[in-house]
């Protein structure tokens, strides 16, 4: 573990800890406020993210931005990262060895940011962070507390593109986050 951002960021340059290094164009480390009280964790970069080196800049990200705007969450004030930092081929789900190689970086990001709330975007984030016994369908929309961090599992924004009903639930879940953050006067 590194106790500063510079060392952590340097440690990931040219990372070859898993096979996802072979086809990536850019490592998508994460983006946002390093003092954020709210952190969002997705699955892994898609084509647009891989091209730009930034998380959630494609279609799913644009939908997430719209929800943020509507609910009053400012994207610049939160921190956004992914379970894996390099794009899985054809956007497949990260494999167990890939996620476990990459998770040290994410854990280190969480340690440095010290968020009060972590929003888990979809099944991959939920299972890798809280445990594979969790299922997104039953866990979403409910707070889970672990080691002084409140977790809110919700749908992955890409799932909203395929299913309109999930959009409503996603908004509902983010509203819970916003209400809690307002109530606790969080920095976001
Ligand atoms: N999907 C993710 O899980 N993360 C991104 O950064 C973009 C799409
Ligand atoms: Fe390294 Fe993570 Fe990329 Fe794998 S996905 S090569 S562990 S940065």
Task: Give structural notes.
This protein is of the alpha/beta class and 188 residues long. The protein has a single domain (5-183), classed as 3-Layer(aba) Sandwich (Uracil-DNA Glycosylase, subunit E). The chain is 44% helix and 13% strand. The protein is built from 8 helices and 6 strands; from the N terminus they run αββααβαβααββαα. It has helices spanning 5-12, 47-52, 59-71, 96-113, 123-130, 136-139, 157-162, 164-183, and strands at 31-32, 38-42, 79-82, 117-121, 144-146, 149-154. It has a 6-stranded mixed β-sheet with strand order 1-3-2-4-6-5, sandwiched between helices. The longest helix has 20 residues, at 164-183. The structure holds uracil (URA) and iron/sulfur cluster. Residues 12, 15-18, 20-21, 27, 84-86, 98, 101-102 line the site of iron/sulfur cluster.
List its traits.
alpha/beta, Uracil-DNA Glycosylase, subunit E, 188 residues, 44% helix, binds uracil, 6 strands, six-stranded mixed sheet, 13% strand, binds iron/sulfur cluster
List the helices and strands and how they pair.
Blueprint: H1 5-12, E1 31-32, E2 38-42, H2 47-52, H3 59-71, E3 79-82, H4 96-113, E4 117-121, H5 123-130, H6 136-139, E5 144-146, E6 149-154, H7 157-162, H8 164-183
Parallel strand pairs: 2-3, 2-4, 4-6
Antiparallel strand pairs: 1-3, 5-6
The chain binds uracil and iron/sulfur cluster.
Uracil is lined by residues 42-46, 49, 55-56, 58, 60-61, 82, 158.
């Amino acid at each position: 573990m590194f106790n500063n951002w510079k060392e952590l960021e340097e440690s990931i340059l040219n990372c070859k800890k898993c096979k996802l290094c072979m086809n990536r164009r850019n490592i998508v480390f994460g983006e946002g406020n390093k003092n954020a009280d709210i952190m969002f964790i997705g699955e892994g970069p898609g084509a647009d993210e891989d091209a730009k080196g930034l998380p959630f800049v494609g279609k799913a990200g644009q939908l997430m931005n719209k929800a943020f705007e509507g609910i009053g969450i400012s994207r610049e004030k939160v921190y956004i990262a992914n379970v894996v930092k390099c794009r899985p081929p054809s956007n497949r789900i990260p494999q167990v060895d890939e996620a476990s190689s990459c998770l040290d970086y994410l854990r280190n990001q969480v340690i440095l940011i010290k968020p009060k709330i972590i929003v888990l975007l979809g099944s991959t984030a939920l299972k890798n962070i809280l445990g594979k016994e969790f299922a997104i369908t039953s866990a979403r929309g409910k707070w889970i507390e672990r080691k002084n961090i409140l977790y809110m599992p919700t749908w992955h924004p890409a799932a909203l593109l395929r299913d309109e009903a999930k959009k409503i639930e996603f908004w509902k879940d983010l509203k819970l986050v916003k209400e809690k953050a307002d109530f606790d006067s969080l920095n976001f």
